[in-house]
UniProtKB/TrEMBL annotation:
Domain Myb-like positions: 17-69, 70-120
GO biological process, alphabetically ordered: positive regulation of DNA-templated transcription; regulation of secondary cell wall biogenesis
Record localization: Nucleus
Location of the region described as Disordered in the Swiss-Prot/TrEMBL record: 1-21, 129-148
The UniProt record lists the keyword Transcription regulation: yes
Main subcellular localisation: nucleus
Keyword list, A-Z: Activator, DNA-binding, Nucleus, Repeat, Transcription, Transcription regulation
Bias kind Low complexity: ranges: 129-138
Protein's name in the database: Transcription factor MYB46-like
GO cellular component annotations of the record: nucleus
Source organism per UniProt: Gossypium australe
Residue span(s) of domain HTH myb-type: 17-73, 74-124
Record keyword Repeat present: yes
GO molecular-function terms, A-Z: double-stranded DNA binding; sequence-specific DNA binding
Length: 318
DNA sequence: AAAATGTACAACCGCTGTAAC
DNA sequence: AGTTACAGCGGTTGTACATTT
């Protein structure tokens, strides 16, 4: 724990105006905010700052609470499962840290961002010669050459040459946060459970999500329990491999996407079609040229659907 | 032992989107 | 329609601590 810093010279009272504090939070400030939040709950942050007796702006209080004081934060080192998930998600989402964080319970976007920038990025750089699962899709080390990674294959592509399920993919993005892989597309069998044996035991009866009844769960004996219960029904679970234009031309029915991907039982069961999971059932949605609008329909819809994947790290105890 | 350098991470800044007025 | 306040996000900076020279 770092020592709190003393007030900078401009932090005192000035002409009856209370100057707002900046910089590191002192334990006293933390305690004030924590007490206030626990007894009053969340509200308007500027009010919270005022009512809690903090000489901080609401924004600062919000950040402190979200990134540090929140009781549900995990903190501590990232476990390998988390690392791999971050890498996976980053390969899909790019620098959308909040969305990545949403899939890692107890972790904040700031924490993940820092971890990525300080550790993972560097590590991936150094492991490009011997890539592993944890070295995929390094946005800073993408080679111009096609390469295999063991899990997926990254191809340099012409942005107009890739068609995914009838939806073309372009690397151009109008989003302020551009995807990190210009001119690259990962043709990869997306594996939402990188540390789960690929031969998930998806057979047998549905087991209720363990989080409904217990905090215990996890991966063991070939089973994975997420909040989806069991993913898939009768065979190995695998999401469809992304296809090139040519491949799709030969498979206009997209039959590989029609596999039932999951079943969830919250009193009643329902099936989730893989194509629906990815928002791909809507044929007029295209990733093509300007129409790849990450941050607009395609990406948001995609991520909405990806968000329906289990929070499987809930079940890891790192 | 001291200075220089590197690392990790907390916090700030600027921007965008949204709601209320 | 314009303005304001606020929440949220991602990029960046600042700083304490660790390691190396």
């Amino acid at each position: 724990m770092r020592k709190p810093v003393a007030d900078p010279p401009n932090m005192g009272k000035d002409n009856n105006k209370v100057k707002l504090r900046k910089g590191l939070w002192s334990p006293e400030e933390d305690e004030k905010l924590m007490k206030y939040m626990l007894s009053n709950g969340q509200g308007c942050w500027s009010d919270i700052a005022r009512n809690a007796g903090l000489r901080r702006c609401g924004k600062s209080c919000r950040l402190r609470w979200i990134n540090y004081l929140r009781p549900d934060l995990k903190r501590g080192a990232f476990c390998p499962q988390e690392e791999d998930l971050i890498i996976h998600l980053h390969s899909i989402l790019g620098n959308r840290w909040s969305q990545i964080a949403a899939r890692l319970p107890g972790r904040t976007d700031n924490e993940i961002k820092n971890f990525w920038n300080s550790t993972l990025k560097k590590r991936l750089k150094t492991t490009t010669t011997t890539p592993t699962c944890s070295s995929l899709n390094n946005s800073d080390s993408i080679s111009e050459q096609p390469r295999t990674d063991g899990v997926g294959v990254i191809f340099p592509v012409n942005e107009h040459d890739i068609d995914i399920m009838g939806a073309s993919l372009s690397s151009s993005s109008s989003s302020p946060t551009s995807m990190p892989y210009p001119s690259m597309v990962t043709l990869n069998q997306f594996d939402p459970f990188p540390h789960v044996n690929n031969s998930y035991d998806m057979k047998g009866s549905f087991n209720p999500p363990t989080w409904l009844t217990t905090t215990q769960g996890g991966v063991g004996e070939g089973l994975f329990y997420g909040d989806y219960g069991k993913i898939g029904l009768e065979g190995e679970f695998s999401l469809p491999q992304l296809e090139t234009t040519a491949a799709i031309a030969n498979n206009n029915n997209n039959s590989c996407f029609n596999n039932t991907a999951g079943e969830k039982n919250h009193g009643q069961s329902f099936k989730v079609e893989v194509d629906n999971m990815f928002g791909l059932e809507n044929n007029h949605h295209h990733w093509h040229g300007e129409s790849l609008r990450m941050g607009e329909w395609d990406f948001e819809e995609l991520m909405d659907n990806i968000s329906s994947f289990p929070n499987f790290l809930d079940n890891f105890h790192c």
